[in-house]
Amino acid sequence: MSTGKIGVTSQDLFPIIKKFLYSDHDIFLREIVSNAVDATQKLKTLASTGEFKGELGELTVDVKIDKEAKTLTISDRGIGLTKEEVEKYINQIAFSGAEEFMDKYKDQANAIIGHFGLGFYSSFMVSDKVEILSLSHKEGAQAVRWSCEGNPEYTLEAAEKADRGTDIIMHISDEEKGFLEEGRIQELLNKYCKFLPIEITFGKKKEWKDGKQVETEEANVVNDTKPAWTKKPADLTEENYNDFYRQLYPMSDEPLFHIHLNVDYPFNLTGILYFPKIKNSVEIQKNKIQLYCNQVFVTDSVEGIVPEFLTLLHGVIDSPDIPLNVSRSYLQSDGNVKKISNHITKKVADSLFDIFKKDREDFEKKWDDLRIFVQYGMLTEEKFYDRAKKFMLLKNTDGKYFTTEEYETIVKENQTDKDGNMICLYATHTEEQYTYIDLAKAKGYDVLLMDSQLDNHLINTLEQKTTTTRYVRVDSDVIEKLIQKDEVKASSLTEEQKNDLIPVFNAQLPNEKVNYIVTFEALGAEAQPLMITQAEFMRRMKDMAAMNPGMAMYGEMPDSYNLVVNTDHALIEKILESKDTELSDKIAEITAKLSPVIAEKEALEALKKDKKEDEVPQEEKDKMAEVQKQITEINAERRALLTGFGKDNQIVKQLIDLALLANNMLKGEELAKFVKRSINLIK
User: For burial by CB atoms within 10 Å, which of 283, 327, 586, 617 has the most?
Assistant: First the structure.
């Protein structure tokens, strides 16, 4: 027996390891099991080179809990340790045996996981005491027992062990007694060790018998040593890929399709990425791609290794070349990370294009589930945009699909305005905007359906890329102005008639948190008498503000709509006639009262002509203010008269409600009143 001190420079090293080396205490299990797998892989390498001539036999790594002894033991039948190796690799912290072994056997070595030589000490995060019982594979070796209680003091002595390999015996502390629960250990093995290349057993398999679970004689193997991503694509069927997806995500729907990554230059990278069905919202779940290093789980936060839009994917990425921090818990900044990220982006884009070319019909069927992903990538990654524009699809309201190039060819001739801009009309809801879609189709125009959460952002990007193409929502203006071919026909109404109709219609417009602006257009006698439109710019800004906190100012602004009055419609003429019949005498009185005041104002303006403001006598200024006040009061009187007429006019109310109804904006009590009024009008 011998005693000594571990080669450290500070008494505080163990507390540092316990508190700061690993972000999560449960990582200790990954580290200890990975070390056991490394020891086994080393033995297999020595056997393959002829340096170990014994029988390999069973190479399983075994995990055992002893609740009475309060121990958790990890056992392997790997390479084992001699007394000298314990002193070299255990007593000198951060002297990695894996690095030394890899240097010696770099051409023959199986995948060795460890690199830093610190993993073993993670056991002290959960243990009061840790023991190593090991017997080297070397002929005539003496078994040794090493013991330490989480300080620089240790004991190292000869021991008895029947078989080669190593047992790591952790005496779990009272604070961490949860690690003596079978369910907790099973959970952690499933998380960190599910795909390690050596079989790992934990207890016995269980089965239901007589209404309860009972142990069988069969060992419970917790991992799949040859997961799908480690195999060649040629050796896998579609069902194999789907089975692996279900293994990763048991509760998920079937994926749309997959991409198998297999790169060996200029870096090593394997993996399988799946495209899940994404609903019509950006469901960014950044814990769906799992990062592995030589089949050891590292993290499911892969933002550093893949662009953000790829975090919408599911699957596995495995690379020994990804730079990890010392605890193997997250990525470190490195040139390789950017290269790998760029390669994955290219591979995803190229694979999607291949799928598109190979079976476009199937691609179109999956497009509605896929488009959020593609749009998100185009908006956030310039390189992906350049590739994706070849297979990004637009869908029209008839359910037909087009690439942007195809669509331009189809609509360019008919949908180019007088200024040479190609106008792509779109709707966000086929039923709610049916009236406007129908009017556009009657003109021979095509209408796209853009109802994705990201379509507004995509439209802005597409417009920036092609300055002569504009996207205009089909209900943003009257049909004649959506794609303006010629000068718009002038209204037949006088300015006075228009000014009189504004308060008439304002009197019946809803007064909730919405602004309505009454405008006038000559739309033809067959067009609707009233239409409601919303300017493209403000509507688009408000829609984008819903997703972008930086645009909150637009989201807080009240909605603003145009109430477009068709001056060619007979019902508008009827309203004007009714107004004249009912109000002509009273309006004539107001006009008579206003005329001399207007004349006086004009006279005062003539007096101040060619004078600077300080040259105008105060008396004239006071008189002008008084005259302006009289004009305002007389105009208010006229406006009140017209407002009263509008409030009592059932045709005005009915026309406004019809326009609101066409926009799905008439609801609740107002809809009920409209129905009742409509019945009364029919009687």
Answer: 327
